[in-house]
Amino acid sequence: MKGIAHYNEGEQVNHYLLVKSSSKGLTSGGKPFLTLILQDQTGDIEGKLWDSSPQDEHDFIPDTMVKVEGDITTFRGKNQLRIKGIRLVTSNDQVKKADLVMSAPLSVNTMLDKVTQYIFEIKNPAIQRITRALLKKHQDAFFEFPAAVRNHHEYVSGLAYHVVSMLNLAKGVAGLYPSLDTDLLYAGIILHDMGKVTELSGATAASYTLEGKLLGHISIMVNEIAETAKEIGVDGEEVVILQHMVLSHHSKPEWGSPKPPLVKEAEILHMLDNLDAKMNMMDRALEKAKPGDFTERLFALDNRTLYRPQFESKLPVE
Amino acid sequence: MKGIAHYNEGEQVNHYLLVKSSSKGLTSGGKPFLTLILQDQTGDIEGKLWDSSPQDEHDFIPDTMVKVEGDITTFRGKNQLRIKGIRLVTSNDQVKKADLVMSAPLSVNTMLDKVTQYIFEIKNPAIQRITRALLKKHQDAFFEFPAAVRNHHEYVSGLAYHVVSMLNLAKGVAGLYPSLDTDLLYAGIILHDMGKVTELSGATAASYTLEGKLLGHISIMVNEIAETAKEIGVDGEEVVILQHMVLSHHSKPEWGSPKPPLVKEAEILHMLDNLDAKMNMMDRALEKAKPGDFTERLFALDNRTLYRPQFESKLPVE
Amino acid sequence: MKGIAHYNEGEQVNHYLLVKSSSKGLTSGGKPFLTLILQDQTGDIEGKLWDSSPQDEHDFIPDTMVKVEGDITTFRGKNQLRIKGIRLVTSNDQVKKADLVMSAPLSVNTMLDKVTQYIFEIKNPAIQRITRALLKKHQDAFFEFPAAVRNHHEYVSGLAYHVVSMLNLAKGVAGLYPSLDTDLLYAGIILHDMGKVTELSGATAASYTLEGKLLGHISIMVNEIAETAKEIGVDGEEVVILQHMVLSHHSKPEWGSPKPPLVKEAEILHMLDNLDAKMNMMDRALEKAKPGDFTERLFALDNRTLYRPQFESKLPVE
Amino acid sequence: MKGIAHYNEGEQVNHYLLVKSSSKGLTSGGKPFLTLILQDQTGDIEGKLWDSSPQDEHDFIPDTMVKVEGDITTFRGKNQLRIKGIRLVTSNDQVKKADLVMSAPLSVNTMLDKVTQYIFEIKNPAIQRITRALLKKHQDAFFEFPAAVRNHHEYVSGLAYHVVSMLNLAKGVAGLYPSLDTDLLYAGIILHDMGKVTELSGATAASYTLEGKLLGHISIMVNEIAETAKEIGVDGEEVVILQHMVLSHHSKPEWGSPKPPLVKEAEILHMLDNLDAKMNMMDRALEKAKPGDFTERLFALDNRTLYRPQFESKLPVE
Amino acid sequence: MKGIAHYNEGEQVNHYLLVKSSSKGLTSGGKPFLTLILQDQTGDIEGKLWDSSPQDEHDFIPDTMVKVEGDITTFRGKNQLRIKGIRLVTSNDQVKKADLVMSAPLSVNTMLDKVTQYIFEIKNPAIQRITRALLKKHQDAFFEFPAAVRNHHEYVSGLAYHVVSMLNLAKGVAGLYPSLDTDLLYAGIILHDMGKVTELSGATAASYTLEGKLLGHISIMVNEIAETAKEIGVDGEEVVILQHMVLSHHSKPEWGSPKPPLVKEAEILHMLDNLDAKMNMMDRALEKAKPGDFTERLFALDNRTLYRPQFESKLPVE
Amino acid sequence: MKGIAHYNEGEQVNHYLLVKSSSKGLTSGGKPFLTLILQDQTGDIEGKLWDSSPQDEHDFIPDTMVKVEGDITTFRGKNQLRIKGIRLVTSNDQVKKADLVMSAPLSVNTMLDKVTQYIFEIKNPAIQRITRALLKKHQDAFFEFPAAVRNHHEYVSGLAYHVVSMLNLAKGVAGLYPSLDTDLLYAGIILHDMGKVTELSGATAASYTLEGKLLGHISIMVNEIAETAKEIGVDGEEVVILQHMVLSHHSKPEWGSPKPPLVKEAEILHMLDNLDAKMNMMDRALEKAKPGDFTERLFALDNRTLYRPQFESKLPVE
Description:
6 copies of one chain form a homohexamer.
Chain A: E1 12-26, E2 32-40, E3 43-50, H1 54-59, E4 65-75, E5 78-88, H2 108-121, H3 125-137, H4 139-142, H5 158-176, H6 182-192, H7 196-199, H8 210-214, H9 216-231, H10 237-247, H11 264-287
Parallel strand pairs in A: 3-5
Antiparallel strand pairs in A: 1-2, 1-4, 2-3, 4-5
Helix pairs in contact in A: 2-5, 2-6, 3-6, 3-9, 5-6, 5-11, 6-10, 6-11, 9-10
């Protein structure tokens, strides 16, 4: 079956989809309608359910699966779905949530092997043990959660995929700058966003938890490093420096780090995080633009709109 | 014996003093000299030791007691001490460090009673138990450390004195705004700067520890609240909210809080902290100015210089 | 009769209300409608009058009383009123504007007594006479005007209520910090926002006057202090310092004060103003949120949304 | 006699000079010396009086005339005066302060005629009367004071000269943009900096008064316009708009204007003020640089250093 | 025939107009419509074409001429046009684009004479030859293009009109400040915005070209000065300084100039550019406001709204 | 012979050195002295020549070779050289400037091969030809100049070494993100700082040229790309995009780029530039710190001071 991202204006849709978000509006004539963001593995689309009932509001909430019939229209250059029929999925439909969500291009097992291999390469025993213990504690969520609610790697297993990309990047960079301490760098990469498994509500249709809102993933993880080190009987400067790497990885106070990077590997961790996240955002935006066109405005890139040259010979790869 | 703060230009000094800081300079003719900040209970003075030897550099380091002879001169309106003789204190001198340091106007016991009394008024058992346990863990240092290295309450027991002042202020304010949750407010005040006992090196001539520089007192304390709660078997929203109050008490990212206050009592905690700290800074600066004059520039008050009106009838009180 | 703030979705309204603001819109089909903010003593509600006529536009302007029939609907979690019938109030209705506006929880007489008492406590004759003369000049408006058009104390007598709260707060704080000059502080509090009686158009449905827009309440009051002092034959440093306290009470240039506070009591005036205003905003926002929920975004608090803990035992009080 | 600005390294000086400022220093060997800024009509020079006595400190204070002997040396490309002999001027010396100060290139009478002529061209009677009355009140000081303590027009009669230049500029600009209201523009120019006569201490060696520091020349003048209008029985919108023009002439809060220009002529007033002040600063800095060189850093021009092209055919004129 | 700017609510329109921009919307009921900005020589109006077809979207694109029938309505105080009939202009209509666009108040020939005269006054041969050569290269576009897409002089020949106004202004200012090098100033004015002929797509309904977006008119012109100088065999400091004047004419990095003005005439060029542009914006906004009213918010003037005094005797002139 | 970086306090020096900078001072007793920065291949040292003569000032200017005798002293933890004898180098000394300057760790030939190889890998003929032509034009200077006057790669051939490091980095990154257009990236890296050969005065003791100060290396190179493309007959989008990559490589206006990166490879170019420059700065600062210590403050890293962990097993490599 064709994915939701691949329809064109005027086509008919009859499709299983997952509700990503739902909000109620009133027409200028005062009638209620629902705006649903609906997704499958290929992407998402904004759907309009006109003349919605209170029952509709109650049923079609985030993270529920639905069967939808409708027409594709366009608005401001984007596809929209005019919903003509919608119902909740039942057990008879035999559709699983995993069929309806985007996920990382690598399998969980592949990524687990990769991360395990990098941990194995960490020689400093204190650093290795802390990293291993924390990964073990959060292993399931770590390989399922997205890296963010929006902007970059915001899909199932996005967090782990982002970490694996950064680890590969770190290995390449450390090959060119041999003074880099790869123990610190690999451990810092694996731990830097692990607090997201507490900050976010789940792997799909994620929102922020109370701890996420009041403390944030950085403080959450800085805490856990201290706690875990104590539990497994590790102390010494390595603990403080790992905490510092997580604490400072957003680089500036106004971006969420109360201390700037004060250790070389912390600075590099920040730069690699930034490089991989921006590459992901740019590739996905450029994929949707034709050669010779500009992308839509990218909020997380200071609202820039990027140009896709006409002469490029290679296609952006997701 | 007259305190070091009370000498005038031209007088002779023969005095026990504590070295607060020491730095080496070269005269424009290329000769070494030491600039020592020397203190007793009444204040401190900059001393110059001309033609200093390597042995002098080695001996007169921060937190050592010395016997000094010299003359008072003035420079840019401030007293200076031209050191003619200086030696380390020996056991024969029978002088104790406590005799040479400024400290809070209340005794440790008085402040301990006060803080204990406020903890007793906390009704929520989770909040009370966490606060009590943390105070117990750090009790000695908490009642001895300064509140800061400079700017406000930077003397022995300054931290506890700042906390007691804020608790009294909180009680007064809560009397006028009955919606305030005094459990949260009292606990937040007691814990907000407790991380300073780890951030700073000691009660006198304090500098920053490695943990202080790489993590900061806010992150340190946010960690300890989680750890202590776990140790004493407390969980629930109270833990997260106490962590949040400490995390947010500097109010803005650029002032060191990765999250702004998102709970009413956290906002009020920030305001009372600010009020008490500024009052302390302003009183001490105005005390040194005569009516009709401006104070020196106050770095921590955006470099302002304050005016002391001529008509005031009350004297600033320290 | 039930207040407008206490209706639920689906209920019928038949109610006297005061028009707070009115603006015309066009439906996407090109038809005119009016959006009216309508209030009584309990709060306000957005009303939609569909298919409005030019006569409607002409009649239902700010500060007029109307009789309204309609249904309560909801939109984005807020109540809306779909107006089915609306007419101007006539003398037969026997309804007074005072019945339809929110006002301070204390009576004008109580507040007048309070302020008079505080003026009586001012010992410096120059400060007392200026304060008394200015209060006398603006007495009626001072006890009727709101403290602001929006954000805090934006109701009848809000200005005086804000001043009384600050005076009580100042008395408490001065009890703990005896170096504070209460003469300056009380006078500064009474005068700091008095220019609002010229900056704003009236006690209800207030907007900005030309002087308000071109000069602002701070400059207006700084002028009046000089003028009044001259009229009653007072001169000396007290005049300049009172002017300075008003001039600097917003603390920073970008908040409207061309000079920062350079006198201790001016700094404290700013802080108490801030504390009382924020307490008012926070209490009112939290009152509308349930325990465990976040408030709506609060523009005047840097767009924060505040959390109301689940465990609180006390209710916010307005 | 050659002016102090025209000596070269190695020459002997024997000269009457005015002390502009005086500050005490200590050599690195601990000996006191005075740094005096000394001026005559051609400019100023930094003088060093080594081994100064307390009597010297007492005598050689700002705004006193002295007779000085010494040698010209250079330091960082600037002349310095090594003082070998210095004494106070006595009545026998027959030297007047006016002989030792820089002043505007036009005489007071010429400038008075010019300003009077422009006032005469103001047609609106309210605007004309207020302007005339204020000029009369401050006439002597207005034609003697500098426009600032430093940066631009900081010499005797600098304020009036700056005003006359701006008036001529305004006439030219209004000729090209006939919609400009010259009544407002001329009055605004004459009044915009008149508050300096209260903000500054005098015509020579000026410092800030208490009113200057606590209120500033803008607030001072905004007050006086209101007061004067009342005294001469003028009211109406003209008063508010003249106040607004003075209030807003620094254009931005962070530059001292609590309101930005909201009337066209207020915006133009700001621009002409800026243009004349910068032209004065740039001309004087470039005059000291040779073609092909850069000037010293100019603090009031964002610390820029300006280039003087090699090919220019015209010399900068002061 | 009455111009489109002069209709009132309720009147019928039957008019030739030029499409300035076109965008598609959806009604809240999901039906497509077009919002067209339509202009003639007197101004522009927003038109709504309800129930638009794909053919309409295809036909009514920017820079096409149309014949329109409809009614004038109002929304938020602005006229709107409800389109009842619209068709493309054909050759039978005998209407030219020049009849439908606003243009500068001076003819191209008059402006060409003026600019030529100023070039003739440039005495330095290098500066004169470069300016002349560049004007020749871009002569047609230079006298046809607008000075900007919006905000100021955004009409046919707006660029040349802006340049002529600035040249007249420069002549007046240089008369008062004789140290100004008019060769540099006149050349800088003529060249400063000439890059717009490459940055923008055309004289009417202009948008940004790829070079405009990726390089900007400043870099484009800095390049062309170097290239042209080489072509005509001119070198020396004059080339670098002309490049610098164009490079720095926006004054600050955040306004598009990588270097601030470092030559006096560059600073004055910036100020005159600013003065003429703001005068144009202010006059046009004030023309639409009645005495005693405020204008709409002006984005390019920091979102200010300007007051038009009641007492003014002169009308704003465009 | 031991390099100047390897002496300790108290040792005697008798050494050939190159003058990097020279400035005159006055002792507080009024006597002239010279402060010389003197270098050899191992680093530089500040030397003091007391009681200097006008002849000394004339002789010991930047980029001259000298023979120096003196003693090593220390000041604020840094070595200083007290000069006892100094003379200019003559032909008899048989010392070459190349013996006294730091230079890149790779030879010019090695780097030339590397860059040539990368150009060879560029497949797009337009991009390759422009890059090749520009390298040929500036080849000698390109392989000799430093990358900057201070902060990073500020030694002979530093520019080419920085480019080679970035090319290697780009190859590694492009291997992991196959959507990157290596043609653009390699060309952008080779050209991004090539304008420095015009901005700076030479390979050693470099200062800024007039073009450097008034235009900057970015504008200079953007010009040259256009010019060179025209000369070799290349046009098309490639030219504009290469210009854009150079123009935007500082990323933000306040860092010198009038346009932000709007092409993916331009963004990546900025990030790799930043990564290589910071790595160079950090490695060199950490090399001078002992494990467990902090470095001196690093101006170009926001004034941070970096910590060198105690447990690191690898040494920083230059």
